[in-house]
Amino acid sequence: MGRADLKPARRTRLGVILLVAALHIAVVVILVRAFTPEFAANIAGSLTQSFDVPLDPPPPPPESTPAARPAEPDPEGAAGAPGKRASPRPVPAPQAPVPLASTQAPPIAGSGADDASGARSEGTGTGQSGAGEGTGSGRGGAGSGGGGGIAAKPVKIAGDINSARDYPRESRDLRLGSQVVIALRIGIEGQVKSCRVVRPSPDAEADRITCRLTTERFRFRPARDAGGNPVEAEYGWRQRWFLKGGA
């Protein structure tokens, strides 16, 4: 037989020997556990028993040094009592002057001279009178007045008071030679909205009649502002009563 045939036989015998040895060891272990359990426990305990290793004690902690107390400040003088708070003296507010309203007559534009027929020559005003009947007739003079912001003043275009029959005959002696001045409020449509007596005559009834007649009869071209829009404005009217034969 050659060397190649011997190698497998050796390997087989070696394996058998190891197997037999392992079986013997297993049998011994089983017998020991079965008959002497304390011995096995002691062996296991000896393998797992712990033991202490002495260690050096840790060094003691360093002693804490107490912090130095801050030096007390030098005593200072006590603060004085607070002074009294100054209060300002009340100053009275100046009183604004109160404007006093003054009633002024509206400007009268022009007047003419009387003549025997009871008519008048026209000045710059727009009023005119008619012929009288009996002992006297009415005579009017007119002018225009307006407030601020009026570019064109109102202009009288219709109506008049020119007959003595417009006034009571019983009180003609009281009003002859006198006159009344009134202020008319002209609306944006040219009609008289209101009338007030500025300078009365001796005949209060004649003054009221004059206001009524101007409101009913007079028509105007209304005043206008800078933009050409109609605005309300005042118009002054003076009514005179005179004798037929003299000024």
What would your notes on this structure say?
- It comes from Novosphingobium pentaromativorans.
- It is a single-pass membrane protein.
- The chain crosses the membrane at residues 12-32.
- It is found in: Membrane.
- Strand 7 (223-225) and strand 8 form a beta hairpin.
- The chain contains four helices and nine strands.
- 26% of the residues lie in helices and 20% in strands.
- The strands form three sheets. The chain has a four-stranded antiparallel beta sheet, covered by helices on one side. Strands 2-7-8 form a three-stranded antiparallel beta sheet, with no helix packed on it.
- The longest helix is centred in the N-terminal third of the chain and has 33 residues, at 3-35.
- Helix 1 packs across helix 2.
Give the structure's gist in a few sentences.
The protein is an alpha+beta fold and 247 residues long.
The CATH architecture designation of the domain at 136-243 is 2-Layer Sandwich
Number of strands: 9
Rg over alpha carbons: 69 Å
Mean pLDDT across every amino acid position: 70
Determine the CATH topology of the domain at 136-243. TolA/TonB C-terminal domain
Beta-strand share of residues: 15-25%
Number of helices: 4
Low-confidence stretches: 44-53, 98-139
CATH class of the domain at 136-243, anyone? Alpha Beta
Percent helix, as a range, is 25-40%
How would you describe the shape? elongated
Main β sheet profile: 4 strands, antiparallel
